[in-house]
Every structure is written in structure tokens, then in C-alpha cells.
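User: Here's a chain of 253 residues. Predict its fold as C-alpha cells.
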Amino acid sequence: MSLSLLAVLFAAPSFAADNLAVVNGKAIPQSRAEAVIAEQKAQGAPDSEQLRAAVKERLIGLEVLAQEAQKKGVEKSAAFQTKLDIARQSLLVNTYLQDYAKAHPVSEADIKAEYDRIKAQLGDKEYKVRHILVEKEEDAKAIIEKLGKGEKFDDLAKQSKDPGSKDKGGDLGWANPGSFVKPFSDAMTKLEKGKYSATPVKSEFGYHVIKLEDVRALKSPTLEEVKPQLKQRLEQQAVEKHVAELRAKAQIK
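Assistant: Prediction complete.
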């Protein structure tokens, strides 16, 4: 059970008429069950009689065990108090961040701007490309020379130091320029279909020999299709920024 429910589970129960159950004379409030059900629904579970029955059994089981633990004095132990302090702090932080996100909602304009930014970064084309990556420039030049003499790109790719593509003829599949480091994407987008780079392309990984196999229009998802993901991403970024600002202002010794 998540920390977000600890405060509810440890709350003093009321003997109101809408109790979920009474265990050894101690009431389990219905509100506790509703809190658990709300969390399950937030995770995608449908509200049903089966869910409510399962939650009831779970809470009764917890109450039985909690009462026994109290009899044994577990809550008085230093280990329990330490864990309780951590749980209480985590619950406090999670609730605060949730409240912060609600008080600083992401606007439709923010989501649209992020969509446009990503779409511009991806461009309107994607490329099917192969490459051979080697450590030294002279090795890349030797590969280009062999290609000029008619040797096959697929065969020469076996000496590539890229483990993900060397056994596939250097095939990197379809990707947009933003998926690659800039020197690679710059060289790739200048090539004609079926051609390979006439000179080695240097990047932070070594020297590439690049072959462009095909180009096609990039079919981007619509704003509506990705809006939930963009909203969640922007909310997370806002929270992370806020946390970083608080950390920067904190006096830490």
C-alpha cells in the first residue's frame, strides 16, 4: 500500500454509523476504504463490488495485524519510529508537491508551445540510414576506399564498433535527424539516396561512414494524441524546477 494512504490508515477511527467494520471493538471508518478505492481507481481499476469487497478484506486484515502489533509493543521500537518518520516525511512531501502542481497548472498554450518545439526539432522527414563506426580516421578512409572498389557496405559493417548495428549491416533503421548527434545528422541529411559519405564523419563516438538508403515524410502524431503525455511532462518539469530552486536556497552544512 502506498505512502499516500498512511495518514488515512493511521488516523484515529470514528465510531460513526458509516463504519466499514468493527474489529475487536475498534472501528474502521468508511472514509479509509474510500481513500483506498480512490487510489485504485486512479491507477485504472474500475469501481466495482469486487474491488470494494477486496478493499474491505484488506483493511480488516490490516486492522487485525495492527492490533496484534500494538499488543506486542512494535510501535514503541526505535526501528518502527524511524520508518514512521520517513513515511510521514514522504507523505508530507508528496502531498505538498501535488498541491503545488494543482496551484501551478499547465496551460493549453504551454502544451501547444511544447508540441510545436518538439515537432520543429524532429523536422518533417525521417531517414533510413546505415553506418560503420571506427576509432581512427584512417580506418574510416580505408573503408570508403573499399566501398569505391565495389565492396559491400554490409560486409564492411562487421568491423564497426557499434554493437547494435554491426551484425545488421550497419542498419540504424528509420529515424529523424534529432535522434543523432549533430555531426552525424548534418552529414546524413546532405547525402543523396543510395550514396555514402565521401569523407569520414567525426563525432564524439569516433569516425563514421554513413550510407543513406531512403527518405520519407515524417508522420507526426497530432496534438490531441500526445496532449496527456505532454501535460504530464511539463508538470513534472515544473515540479523538478521548483524542487531545484528550493534546494538552491536551502542552507546545507
